[in-house]
Amino acid sequence: MASIKSSIVIPAYNEKDVIGGFLERIEEAGLHHRYEILVVDDGSDDGTDEIIGQYPVRLIRHRVNKGYGAALKTGIRSATGERVIIMDSDGQHDPRYVDAIHEMLDEHDLVIGERSAASRQRKRRKAGKRLVRWIGEFLVEQKLPDYNSGYRGFKKEIIAGMLHMMPNGFSFSTTSTLAFLKEGYDVGTLEIDVSEREGRKSNVKAVRDGSKTILLLFRIIMLFNPLKVFFPASVISFLAGVGFGIAGYIFYGRFSNGAIVLTILGMFLFFIGLVADQIAIMNRRTP
After folding, report:
1. Residue 104 belongs to domain with CATH number
2. Is pLDDT of 104 > 50?
3. 14 and 82 belong to one structural domain
4. CA-based nearest residue to 41, from 81, 6, 86, 9
5. pLDDT tens digits for 221-243?
6. pLDDT grade, residue 86 (50/70/90)?
7. What was the pLDDT predicted at 282?
8. Fewer CB within 10 Å: N-end or C-end of the chain?
9. Run of H or E residues at 273
């Protein structure tokens, strides 16, 4: 184990019906001889941990369910490898891509398993994903890869320094993609085929997670480039206030209260944006 340079982190929650078959595929591929494999049981209550214990992997348990992102954080902090590859435990991710991701990390800081067109993806989530993609590309000013793919590899030193701003929920993948791009790290992609989820249904629900998507949008705006939103809003408000004020003065001989409010609001938005931008920069760089 001393010569192993990469660790594989696999979060699991109530996956007793599929985790055994998935770990068998990893064992058959001989990955446990070449990589450190950590499975983080995120507070399962269905005996998932007992099944994990039957395989040559390192088991880490949360006493309560903390979330997908929290399980990944625990695994990454506990990993001893210089590189960390994360996979889902529900049978979607094929272990045969692990070696390729490991090798690509020689040249890249982050490698994302980009799902092929033939891969299984839920249609009902596509609208929300398109919106997140549009906002993300607007903020980082470049095209995004498969930003929320859960099959990816990092250089541990870099991702470990970003864990303080990673969420505990399902947006870990999205946030890490934007963080690496925003900070100028090299991001590579590897096309992968993804199977349909096995076992229980996904925890992602359309109504509940629709609101979470909206909150995620606000979060990534404030975390990665708040001034890019606050500045145009402040200009629009300020110019509207000045325009209404001039019109009011010409036609009625005075600046209206509404014009004064809009003008002052524009100035406030600009200075709030400046402060938010500085806070965002410090937050991204404070481990």
Report:
1. 3.90.550.10
2. yes
3. yes
4. 9
5. 788 788 888 999 999 999 999 99
6. very high
7. 80
8. C
9. helix 257-285
